[in-house]
Design a protein that fits this description.
binds zinc ion, mainly alpha, about 190 residues, about 5% strand, 3 strands, single chain, Ferritin, 3-stranded antiparallel β-sheet, globular
């Protein structure tokens, strides 16, 4: 069994392939390359004895809490976008990718919730994305997804420079890599 040092989940023979369409290369039981829950690459996956990167939410200053609160909302927003977009696309491969990405982004939201010591995930206003699918069909939604992922990468890169807690910086760097993988997967599908 393996343990993800970013999301803390235990990876085993039952779950290694859970979100295989949401990672750059599919995991097989013999070759696990990405965390099936949060999508980080193998460098962040350790053995059961390895420590998870943890943050004490009670000792954070208000600015840091605000940054984590915003990051949590950004991830929920993106996760809900993927769930909604999955219902709008025609291509089954893109649909599967969106559904798996929705799961991965929700795990990111929970990582921020835990780091910030927030009691619950906030409920956001649901948006209707129908109007974003025009002449370009599925590709319109892929382009929108890509844009949102780029925004997430920029968010993590910007704030990893201003937060002081080094474990938050580590997590932001890891998640920035994951969102960058999503950008590349979406570019490939375009
Ligand atoms: Zn993970």
């Amino acid at each position: 069994m393996l343990k993800c040092t970013v999301c803390g989940m235990i990876i085993n023979e039952k779950n290694y392939n859970l979100n295989n369409r949401g990672i750059p290369e599919e995991n097989s039981l013999e070759n696990i390359k990405y965390c099936p829950f949060c999508g980080v690459p193998i460098e962040y996956i350790g053995s059961m004895e390895d420590a998870v990167i943890e943050v004490d939410g009670h000792n954070l200053n208000d600015d840091t809490k605000k940054i984590l609160d915003h990051a949590m909302k950004l991830e929920i927003f993106n996760s809900e976008f993927y769930d909604a977009a999955a219902l709008l696309v025609d291509n089954m491969e893109i649909k599967k990718m969106f559904l798996h990405l929705a799961k991965i982004e929700m795990v990111h939201a929970r990582i921020h919730q835990k780091m910030g010591g927030f009691n619950q995930l906030p409920k956001l206003t649901k948006l209707d994305y129908k109007k974003y699918k025009g002449e370009g069909g599925d590709k319109d939604l892929l382009r929108l997804a890509r844009k949102r992922e780029i925004h997430a990468v920029e968010y993590y890169d910007k704030y990893s420079k201003s937060v002081e807690d080094e474990n938050i910086v580590k997590i932001f760097k890891a998640l920035s890599e994951v969102e960058n993988d999503h950008v590349e997967m979406e570019e490939e599908a375009l």
